[in-house]
Write a structure and sequence with these properties.
Pfam families: Mannitol_dh, Mannitol_dh_C. GO terms for molecular function: oxidoreductase activity, acting on the CH-OH group of donors, NAD or NADP as acceptor. InterPro entries: 6-PGluconate_DH-like_C_sf (IPR008927), 6PGD_dom2 (IPR013328), Mannitol_DH (IPR000669), Mannitol_DH/Oxidoreductase (IPR050988), Mannitol_DH_C (IPR013118), Mannitol_DH_CS (IPR023027), Mannitol_DH_N (IPR013131), NAD(P)-bd_dom_sf (IPR036291). Keywords: NAD, Oxidoreductase. With 487 residues, the chain is α/β, with parallel strands linked by helices. It has 2 domains: 278 residues, Rossmann fold; 203 residues, Orthogonal Bundle (N-(1-d-carboxylethyl)-l-norvaline Dehydrogenase, domain 2), CATH 1.10.1040.10. 48% of the residues lie in helices and 11% in strands. The protein contains 21 helices and 11 strands. The strands form 3 sheets. It has a 5-stranded parallel beta sheet with strand order 5-2-1-6-7, sandwiched between helices. A hairpin with a 2-residue loop joins strand 3 and strand 4. Helix 17 packs antiparallel against helix 18 and helix 18 crosses helix 20. The chain is globular and about 65 Å long. It binds D-mannonic acid. The site of D-mannonic acid has 10 residues, from helix 10 and helix 14.
């Protein structure tokens, strides 16, 4: 794949219809992963195709050079493969004009973020990239990257560290701030970003803290598109369809949704041409998506993995799993959601189940199971809190949560080791190791983790009872049977 190869691609492969040399970089994106490339970059591609050339993207990887190493030799071009039971569509995207690797050259990243032409800094750094305490959303001041960035403000490692140093430089130079656009799956993601960034700025000095609090907009967004990690089989599929190698294509579904609060410091692209929607308040959309989609996804990931299902669509083909999810959505989650005017929630739920069934995507349960400590609070615990407040049952949600506890113990149902990826993995493992196979002791041990559960849930006997009972069933009969009991 390269610019020179574009004219020779098969006719049905979409490609940039604009002159890439005429595009200026207006957006710096932190977190150059597959999700960004299949979501915001595709919407931005539509803006560029529409003739507004002020919004090219410079993509920054905060850790690994892998994406840059794959894309740079391809002139930043890559393929988006949209897959479903109906067939595949391919689009080569040109919106990402530069690729940077922050640890190699933090100064280059800061210089670009502080450039007058940069008007938006967007983020997909995953939940843990915010360096916050998941239970409260506050900056984790003891986080090693935060400690590092406070001592070395000119060579930061964390997203808050980069944002604050770049904003500091803009302020010194009398430039307007950029808009910080969080595109991560966090509740009130803009507000979460604002809290950690302004707390970090405040630690660097009251004047900088005040500037961030007063001048920098942090609109919230709801992002939705399923993007499983790319495999070698996917690369082979794309090479076959394009007649060229693409070192790192991204695989996704037809569905895509992006809802954005319309609060920008210095202009923005008209992402509506790429299907986005601008609203005054994103929160109801975010809650709906995080609770219905991600809450179900995580439930399916833990329970499905334990039952031996490798992918989401395999788990969905196991009827009790699909029934558990349908019941959880309609009876336990939907009643907690604020009404969204003109929105058909039942149709949305049905569509979600169809999306999870997509037979053309191989979305591994193990991938979704990652980083549970960072995901569970907004995906399951908020919903459970609302159910407790309303005095209503939540046994399916409790089973999903028990699935996480069982999974985090690191042993599957056949005694094999689970490769648990989570910033708290060692801590959680130690808790479960001490508690053996006794559900009550396991739950007691887990509920000491206030960073995840807060102090309210551990103090609620109804919560403790429901989770202990669910975990008891998981341990006694295994995941498949426990799911069938509650389906
Ligand atoms: C998934 C999400 O990996 C995960 O945790 O639940 O990435 C999910 O696919 C997206 O949020 C869909 O928009």
């Amino acid at each position: 794949m390269s610019s020179a190869a574009l004219p020779a691609l098969p006719a049905d492969v979409a490609r940039p219809p604009y002159d890439r040399d005429a595009v200026r970089i207006g957006i710096v994106h932190l977190g150059l992963g597959a999700f960004h490339r299949a979501h915001q970059a595709v919407a931005t591609e539509a803006v560029l195709a529409g003739g507004d050339h002020a919004w090219g993207i410079a993509g920054v990887s905060l850790r690994s050079p892998d994406t840059r190493d794959a894309l740079e030799p391809q002139d930043g071009l890559y393929t988006v493969a949209v897959r479903s039971g109906e067939g595949d569509r391919f689009q080569v995207v040109g919106a990402i004009l530069r690729q940077l690797v922050a640890p190699e050259d933090p100064e280059a990243v800061l210089a670009l973020m502080a450039a007058p032409t940069t008007r938006i800094v967007s983020l997909t750094v995953t939940e843990k990239g915010y360096c916050h305490l998941p239970a409260t959303g506050e900056l984790d001041r003891d986080h090693p990257d935060i400690v590092h960035d406070l001592a070395n403000p000119h060579a930061p490692r964390s997203a808050p560290g980069f944002l604050v140093e770049a904003l500091h430089r803009r302020r010194e130079r009398g430039l307007p701030p950029f808009t910080v656009l969080s595109c991560d799956n966090l509740p009130a993601n803009g507000e979460t970003a604002r809290r950690v960034v302004s707390a970090f700025a405040e630690l660097r000095g009251a004047a900088l803290g005040g500037f961030v609090a007063r001048e920098v907009p942090f609109p919230s967004t709801m992002v939705d598109r399923i993007v499983p990690a790319t495999t070698d089989a996917d690369r082979a599929l794309v090479a076959g369809a394009l007649g060229r190698e693409d070192a790192w294509p991204v695989m996704t579904e037809p569905f895509s949704q992006w809802v954005i609060e319309d609060r920008f410091a210095d202009g923005r692209p008209d992402w509506t041409v790429g299907g986005a929607r601008f609203v005054a308040d994103v929160e109801p959309f975010e809650l709906m998506k995080l609770r219905l989609l991600n809450g179900s996804h995580s439930t399916l990931a833990y329970l499905g993995y334990l039952a031996g299902h490798e992918t989401v669509s395999q788990a969905m083909a196991d009827e009790p799993f699909a029934a558990l999810l349908a019941g959880m959505m309609s009876q336990e989650i939907a009643p907690t959601l604020p009404p969204l005017f003109g929105f058909d929630l039942a149709a949305y739920r049905a569509e979600l189940l169809e999306r999870f069934r997509n037979p053309a995507l191989r979305h591994r349960t193990w991938q979704i199971a990652m980083d549970g400590s960072q995901k569970v609070p907004q995906r399951l615990l908020g919903t459970i809190r609302d159910r407790l407040r309303a005095g209503e049952p939540f046994e399916r949600l409790a089973l999903g949560l028990a699935g996480w506890i069982r999974y985090a113990g690191g042993r599957d149902e056949r005694g094999g080791t689970i490769d648990v990826r989570d910033p708290m993995a060692a801590r959680l493992r130690a808790l479960t190791d001490g508690a053996g196979e006794d559900p009550a002791r396991l739950v007691d041990a887990f509920l000491t983790v206030q960073d995840v559960f807060g102090d309210d849930l551990p103090a609620d006997p109804r919560f403790r009872r429901a989770v202990t009972e669910a975990l008891g069933r998981l341990l006694a009969v295994g995941s498949a049977a426990a799911v069938a009991e509650r389906a």
